[in-house]
Amino acid sequence: MHLITALFSAAGLLPLALAGADVSASSNIAVYWGQNSYDQSSGPLEQQRLSYYCANSELDIIPLAFLITISNPELNFANAGNNCTAISGSNLFYCPQLEADIAECQSTYGKTILLSIGGATYSEGGFSSSSAAVTAANNIWSIFGPAGSDSSIPRPFGTSVVDGFDFDFESTVSNMPAFGNQLRSLMNADTSKTYYLSAAPQCPYPDAADGPMLDDSVSFDFVWVQFYNNYCGLQSYVEGSSTQNNFDFNTWDTWAKETSANKNVKVFLGIPANQGAAGSGYESGSTLANIITYSKTFSSFGGVMMWDMSQLWANSGFLDAVSADLGGSSSKREASKTTLRRAKRATA
After folding, report:
1. Is the pTM of this model over 0.85?
2. Where is the composition biased (Basic residues) (predicted)?
3. Among all residues, which ones are annotated catalytic?
4. Any idea which fold 22-342 has?
């Protein structure tokens, strides 16, 4: 147990600033980690280990990208995979560094850690039947959910357990609602902690890949819409106009309230974290601030999602600016300091 974890335990406190995702808040920040997309092979801008980023108080949710195949599970974490070793009899690898970092991110820094499934290279196309999807979901849960008694199950993260799953499919997939609903059922049955389910559709509605899951089928907690690489992206926002013709956050707000299986689902503004980070659609400064202000007028708004961590760290000041635009920067830092002071007093 880390010292800070022991302090919180002794004090009987849940650190407000370190509680990770808040489904009722509109200032959450989610950033994908795992792909080293800034593409540095060395130096400070190379993708660092997960715990390095978790120490930042402005981050709330970190999806790990990606589980690139499902039926015969395989992970790809770019350079982070160099610290892993192959698990015999599977396409998976064991990552002791990630096992330690996931636990530290959750217990010490209170981050919500999701495993993102899919990505641009995912090519399985889903499942041949609903029963095959359910079987696959059970297998994924046994590998990344709470460890069971079967020692033959490969465990890439060892004893660490993710806080849920993210679906990031870029092309049409079959029988995915059955997969998502089974994962939701398994998560709901485990009352040891709160689990989350998220999706990352592109902004044209309905989304070609995730549409069947989003159409009153799977109960999601968060949907971070990719407002880039499409006509409905950030660049289509018309400043000062109460009616947006192409920038369609209002469409997704309507989906959240009228169509979603979970009428309390939060919709995130998905943005590139750097120029060219995710193709087209990067905005910053007052333009982005105005887009966030507009998006916050919708009650379903839950915060901002960024692609990705390596791009964000290469874009000095961008995280602080987004956090300030959301109204969460100073409050998160002050709450974090207050919690630490209370914990120290409790053990004095």
Report:
1. yes
2. 339-348
3. 170
4. TIM Barrel (3.20.20)
* pLDDT tens by residue, 245-267: 999 999 999 999 999 999 999 99
Token code pair at residue 109: 């820094």
Of 208, 239, 224, the residue nearest 272 (C-alpha) = 224
pLDDT average, residue stretch 310-324? 98
Q: What pLDDT digit, counting tens, does each position of 161-192 carry?
A: 999 999 999 999 999 999 999 999 999 999 99
